[in-house]
Design brief:
Elements lengths: L2 H40 L3 E4 L14 E8 L8 E4 L11 E10 L5 E6 L17 E9 L2 H8 L2 H38 L9
Antiparallel strand pairs: 1-2, 2-6, 3-4, 4-5
Helix pairs in contact: 1-3
Length: 200
């Protein structure tokens, strides 16, 4: 066999190994991403992306907070909660702030005031809960919110899904071509005439 053919075969084998490695890596990333996406919900957590800086110092902008519903009776000053402020507050988006104080009204129901850790003053509104449970932040993952925000864009989402899918398809095609070439080579060898050398 010529040196050229040997080098070509070596290059093909090297490229095949690289393709298989990329396919394996892509598959691992897809699986881990799917687990990271589904596992919190399966364990009873809700996710919220922090889009402001009012909790800087403890929870930075771009983090994802994970909350779990806690009975209202278990709420305490210092808990970080995610809630929708009262309608007369003028705030129409969810807020993640720390409970600053809890007061019991004449009707026996508690009311709450919150404050962002980076804000000099408590929030100007006071509110009561509409439910007997409240989402309380259990932990957060810094910067992960930027990924979720990016994935909300359809083009980016298609790119993120398309690249691993393309690598998996490339790996499958490479394996198929390799198998077909091996099969054809065996057929050629089986079809070759057998020669016998006569001895004296």
């Amino acid at each position: 066999m010529s040196t050229h053919h040997t080098e070509t075969r070596g290059i093909r084998r090297g490229l095949g190994r690289v393709a298989r490695t990329l396919v394996t890596l892509a598959a691992v990333i897809v699986v881990l991403g799917g687990i990271a996406w589904a596992l919190p919900s399966a364990l009873g957590y809700e996710r919220y992306v922090i889009t402001g800086g009012s909790m800087s110092g403890s929870i930075e902008k771009g983090a994802v907070v994970f909350t779990r519903n806690v009975p209202e009776a278990d709420l305490a000053v210092g808990d970080v909660i995610t809630y929708l402020p009262p309608s007369d507050s003028g705030v129409t988006t969810l807020v993640t702030h720390r409970i600053h104080d809890i007061k019991t009204g004449a009707d026996g129901r508690p009311s709450y005031r919150t404050q962002g850790d980076a804000n000099p003053d408590p929030d100007p509104w006071r509110f009561a809960l509409d439910s007997d449970v409240q989402p309380v932040v259990q932990f957060h993952v810094p910067l992960a919110g930027h990924v979720l925000i990016a994935l909300a864009d359809r083009d980016i989402r298609m790119l993120v899904i398309g690249i691993p899918a393309g690598l998996v398809a490339l790996g499958a095609l490479t394996e198929l071509v390799s198998v077909l070439r091996g099969t054809q080579r065996r057929h050629r060898l089986d079809a070759s005439p057998t020669t016998t050398a006569a001895g004296a």
